[in-house]
Amino acid sequence: MEGRNTNNGNFGITARANTAGLELESLLAEEERGGEVAGREPESLLADEGQVDKDASLRPSNPHAFFPVYKTIHLIRRSIVATISNVVYDNVYLADPYTLKQLNAPSMIVARIQPLVDEFYNSKDITTVYCLLVNRVQFLREQSNHAHHESVNVTRAALCEAVASKVLQRVDEDNPGSKGLLLLAHILVESFDPFQGIQGMLVQGRHPREYTALELGILSESKLFMSSSACQKVVKAIQKGRIVYTPSSPFDLLPDRYDLRPISLYEPRKAPLLNHYRLIVPRIRNILEICQFVLLLVFYVLVMVNRDPAQFDFDAYEIVFCFYTFGWVLDQFASILEHGWRLYTRNLWSFLDVAFAVVYGIYLVLRLCSVGTGNLEISRQALDILSMGAPILVPRLAFSLFSENMLFVSIRAMMADFWVLSLLAVWCSAGFLLAMTWLSRGLFRPTTISKWMLWVWFAMDGTGIERSVELHWLLGPTLMIAFAFLGNTLFLTILVAMLSNTFSKIVSDATVENYYRRAVMTFAAVKSDAIFAYQPPFNILALCLMLPLKFLVSPRYFHKVNVAASRTLNAPLLLLIGLYERSPLWQDAEPTLLKLSKPRSKFVFWAFSKLYGYDDVRAVFDYEPSLEELSDTANLNSSTEDD
Predict the structure, then answer these.
(1) What CA–CA distance (Å, rounded) separates 48 from 52?
(2) Integer Cα distance of 28 and 123 in angstroms
(3) What separation in angstroms does the CA of 142 have from each of 74, 102, 385, 476, 541?
(4) pLDDT by residue (tens digit) across 160-178?
(5) Which residues have a Cβ under 8 Å from the Cβ of 332 and sit 6 or more positions away?
(6) Is the bond into 599 cis (omega within 30 degrees of 0)?
(7) Are 513 and 223 in contact (CB under 8 A)?
(8) Measured in whole angstroms, how far is the alpha carbon of residue 336 from the centre of its chain?
(9) Cβ atoms of residues 284 and 270 within 8 Å
(10) DSSP state for residue 579 in the 8-state scheme
(11) From CA 22, how far away is CA 28, in angstroms rounded?
(12) Would the keyword ATP-binding be found if you checked this record's keyword annotation (predicted)?
């Protein structure tokens, strides 16, 4: 990549060494040629893994350690700051405040973005996009710490996102085919340490943590970057399981990193039939999670329908529900540890899962206490608390089935605004409560006054206004009427305005929002923890049995036992997945010339399609004519024109 001279000096990023580029090209060629990293496990459950050991020993621990990430981050930061800079004139900061839409205008692309793209672009340096997003995260963090630089830092963050999108798009255009897809995957999901390549000093007390460009794009809400065609190409390939890799995780409940899978293209016909790694493919895992939740809902309904308030012992339904739900909560806890709390909360229904986990935890503690003490009242309270899970579980199923519906996406965003405004309103209402409590001089309890205020707030009853004269003949009605006016008028007006603004923003960018949510779900579904290979409630047994075994045997033997156990427990499911992925339905076959005599299934579909009005319009494109027929038609048209 070519350097760009600025007023502050030459901050251009020079091209990497030729040896580094050759090393990366050889790595990509090897992974593309192999395509079987995820499937190199032997077919037998507990066979010899000598080939695995050989491959693992030949593979370097960090194949991208030659990239100076630390230096690139700071070089990019200097170029961005020099492009969008502050000018001080009479102690007033004059900046270049541009929004993301303004930066994507044709004039701004030519003047600001394209020179940076030309400077940063290097198809052999897969860390450029990562470093741009690291700078975006930093600029967004600085916007709240430096008030006088707030607008310019927002502009710099938007510029980093726009340049990263353009660089990734150019890489996609210059590298077509499967090799280009593999290169894009390395750019987006390869993990890097921000301090990689640092020289001359050591950072004391630092715990190394690796991130990916896709993860940084999600955390910084780079929705333009996430919705780009190049990014969505990789997201779709990961979601379908065509691209496989082992993500980096700061903590695993059941770690098994003996055989790490580098980023590679998955070839199902070369993989073993019982491939337990396919259980963490995002598309398959999403289906499994929906099935798990449906079972959880069924067990919950059975418990609540067959509950007996006069009995404090566990029945069969409740025992099954407790064990299965505990395994489901363990799966959610492992998901939080896998990618962190910030990424987990980006999920559309994470707040519902956390809420039900809290309800279940309170219920289980009270239920165990009731059994231990023989107190029937505590048992009833536990079941009453468990009944509060119904308003959580039923909407949660709708969120799972219609995850890309704009209504549910808007509800999640509006709920955050609603709770923030409600907490502020309750905080401000506490002043009215204290004033009326002191005016009552002990005549009414604070709970009674707060009940009156709540009724007035929601316009359900006017008892508080009628009896406010008992507090004080003038000040009591004044306070209550002022509270009613502010609560019903000001609060509701602000609430409606905020929710309408949030809804309009989301609906206006519905496509971008859908792409962003799809990327969040796909990235969060890729797991490295071995606990996810066991379905609830078998994950409880795996944690209790396999985790102690890890400290007693070698990593190689633990890996073999873990593979054997996961394949045995999931054998029917793995067999079904393997047969499905080997069918032509899973393959993204290249367009081929079909004759109307093949395949027969097409004719079956065509026969049934006559029951509908416009299915032939879609079905006609399933039968491409041959080149001879097209050439005959072209010759006929030319002869007609001559006549």
Answers:
(1) 9
(2) 12
(3) 15, 21, 44, 47, 46
(4) 999 999 999 999 998 888 8
(5) 353, 354, 357
(6) yes
(7) yes
(8) 12
(9) no
(10) H
(11) 10
(12) no
**Parallel, antiparallel or unpaired: strands 87-89 and 9-10:** unpaired
Distance CA 522, CA 282 (A): 6
Query: Residue 598 to residues 373, 601, 603, 622: CA-CA distances in angstroms?
Result: 72, 8, 8, 11
Write out the two tokens for 613.
């009005």
Output the six-digit token pair for 96.
């270049």
Does pLDDT of 335 surpass 60? yes
**Contact (Cβ atoms closer than 8 angstroms) between residue 529 and residue 249:** yes
Q: Which two tokens stand for residue 453?
A: 């205020």
CA distance 130 to 69: 9
Distance CA 142, CA 128 (A): 21
- Joined together, the tokens standing for residue 60 give 């370097």
pLDDT in tens, 279-300: 888 999 999 999 999 999 999 9
Whole-angstrom Cα distance, residue 207 to residue 583?
Answer: 45
Distances (CA, A) of 288 to 34, 191, 388, 490, 562: 29, 27, 25, 46, 20
Three-state secondary structure call for residue 75: helix
Higher pLDDT, 364 or 246: 364
The residues that bridge with 244 in the sheet, in sequence order, are 264
CB 494 within 8 A of CB 380: no
Q: Which residues, at least 6 apart from 351, have a Cβ–Cβ distance to it below 8 Å?
A: 345, 412, 415
> Tokens for 31?
């992974």
Beta-bridge partners for 10 = 5
- Cis peptide upstream of residue 537 (ω within 30 degrees of 0): yes
- The values of phi and psi at residue 38, to 5°, are -70, -20
User: 15 to each of 1, 200, 255, 318, 335, how far by Cα in Å?
Assistant: 5, 22, 38, 64, 39
* Cβ–Cβ < 8 Å for 343, 215: yes
The answer to whether residues 99 and 185 touch, using CB atoms and an 8 Å cutoff, is: no
Residue bearing tokens 């309408």: 500
pLDDT band at residue 142 under the 50/70/90 scheme: confident
Over range 620-637, report the average pLDDT: 60
Q: Give the Cα separation of 72 and 11 in Å (integer).
A: 10
The b-or-e profile of 212-231 (16+ CB within 10 A means b, else e) is bbbbbbbbbebbbbbbbebb
Distance between CA atoms of residues 507 and 498, nearest Å: 14
Please state which of the ranges 396-405, 427-436, 552-561, 602-611 shows the lowest mean pLDDT: 602-611
